[in-house]
Each structure stands twice: as structure tokens, then as C-alpha cells.
Design goal:
Layout (H helix, E strand, L loop, with lengths): L2 H33 L3 H34 L7 H21 L4 H18 L9 E6 L26 H11 L2 E5 L2 H11 L3 E6 L1 H11 L4 E5 L14 H11 L4
Parallel strand pairs: 1-2, 1-3, 3-4
Length: 253
């Protein structure tokens, strides 16, 4: 079993576990509404239970669709929206279930990013270079650099003390849009400004996860950064992974 597959299975397994927890919770509500409440209380809980049951069925269908897509390695358009709804609904519970099992939150988010990337790849997206946006985190910039590149990456003086110059070269080579951001607010600003059809985002587990979930239905391919000096300072990224992702999505014809 490859580590990549094992990584995906972690998130999918916890997602299924969260669904099981939700089923038990709704079953408990249903039981109370039938056996432990006064008539008016049973009516209120019964209505709530019916709504919860509808949500549960939709969520179960989404989780089942995700398993089918990953198992068959084939995309099924019918499941796209339902799967996203299921993930968004269950994600907070998934983190709590993982916490109870002693699994680190970053490990769960890392697994989720792998699942997301596989889903994006299976869509076989091809866009023109100008329709692709590469978002890099500002922590890639040398911590002592006086030049502000979040407003304009061309303010980089290409001194070689960090990897920002490499992203400028990537922009020039492939004619894709590249922006350096400080967080979700600025990332959303650039998404609105460039109007991309696909995004390649480099960040830590926390920022990538929130960005992927918030951006749907815009496809976001996530690449984790390296943090040799701790979070948010002089981080690095495997540039070949970024380059490979660009080549995967752009149509150079």
C-alpha cells in the first residue's frame, strides 16, 4: 500500500466514522421523540428528526460517492456537489473524531488535501495559462526583506535569499498569473481580480484546508510548504511540484 493511498484512507475513514456518529445521534433523537417525551415535544423532535434524516441521507450519499470516485479512480459528475456538501458538513466532526482517536489535526488535514487533489486531477482540467492562478504564501519571502511583494510580486529584487524569484520565473515561462498572499482575504481578492478557472495554492495544512473548502466549486490544487524555521517564517516549497502542477493544468497548444 503506498503512503499516498494510506493518506487518503485516513480522511475517508474518519469521514465515514463521523457519519456513523451522526447516525447514532439522529437515532437517539428519534428514540427520545418516540418514547421519552410529551406529545408536543415528540412532534417538535419528530420534525427535527425528519429534517436531520434528510440531511443524513444526503450526507451518506456524498460519502458513498467519494468512496466510489476514489475506488474507481473515475469522476462521476452526479456526485460532485453532493460529495462537497458531505465533506463540508462532516469536516468539523471529522476533526473531533480524529482528536478522540489521538490523530493530529494537521495529519487529518494533510489527508484531506490528498483526497481533494485526487478529485481535482480526475476532472482532467485544462485551461489557458491566463486562466490559472498560482497563490504563494508571503512566508516564502525572506523574513528580513524590506520589499512588499503581496501588492505586486514584481517588487521582488531577485536577490536569491528566498524562492519568490523562482515564482517570477514561473510566471514568465508559462504566462500564468502568480500572486503572493498573506491569508484568505487577500487570496479571495486575487481570485476575484484574476477570475481563474483553476488555482494552485501553496500553504500550510490549515490555510490550504480552509481555502479549498471555501473556494468550491472553483478547483484548488493544494501543495504543502516546508517549514524548516517553524510556521510563517522563511518557509520553502518543492518547486518541481509547483512546476508539475502548472504543466498538469495548462493547455499549451
Amino acid at each position: 500500500m503506498s503512503s499516498e493511498i494510506a493518506g487518503k484512507r485516513l480522511f475517508v475513514g474518519l469521514l465515514a466514522g463521523s457519519l456513523a456518529v451522526l447516525i447514532v445521534f439522529i437515532a437517539a433523537i428519534w428514540y427520545l421523540s418516540e418514547h421519552r417525551m410529551y406529545t408536543y415535544q415528540r412532534t417538535i423532535l419528530g420534525l427535527g428528526g425528519m429534517l436531520a434524516l434528510a440531511i443524513l441521507l444526503l450526507t451518506a450519499l456524498g460519502v458513498g460517492g467519494l468512496v466510489l470516485i476514489l475506488w474507481k479512480r473515475k469522476t462521476f459528475p452526479f456526485f460532485h456537489s453532493i460529495t462537497n456538501i458531505a465533506i463540508n458538513l462532516l469536516f468539523p466532526l471529522t476533526l473531533q473524531v480524529g482528536k478522540l482517536l489521538g490523530i493530529k489535526e494537521d495529519k487529518i488535514k494533510d489527508s484531506f488535501i490528498e483526497v481533494n487533489n485526487q478529485l481535482v486531477i480526475m476532472k482532467k482540467i485544462r485551461v489557458r495559462p491566463g486562466e490559472l492562478l498560482v497563490l504563494a504564501p508571503h512566508c516564502l519571502q525572506y523574513n528580513g526583506c524590506p520589499y512588499k511583494i503581496t501588492k505586486d510580486i514584481h517588487n521582488c529584487k531577485q536577490c536569491g535569499q528566498c524562492q519568490v524569484a523562482d515564482f517570477l520565473k514561473l510566471k514568465e515561462e508559462f504566462a500564468v498569473n502568480v500572486a503572493v498572499v498573506t491569508g484568505g482575504t487577500l487570496a479571495r481578492k486575487y481570485v476575484k481580480e484574476f477570475g481563474p478557472k483553476t488555482v494552485i495554492a501553496i500553504a500550510c495544512e490549515r490555510d490550504l484546508t480552509s481555502g479549498i473548502l471555501d473556494s468550491y466549486p472553483l478547483p484548488v490544487y493544494g501543495i504543502l510548504n516546508d517549514r524548516p524555521n517553524g510556521p510563517c517564517q522563511d518557509t520553502r516549497v518543492e518547486l518541481e511540484n509547483v512546476r508539475s502542477a502548472v504543466l498538469r493544468f495548462i493547455d499549451r497548444r
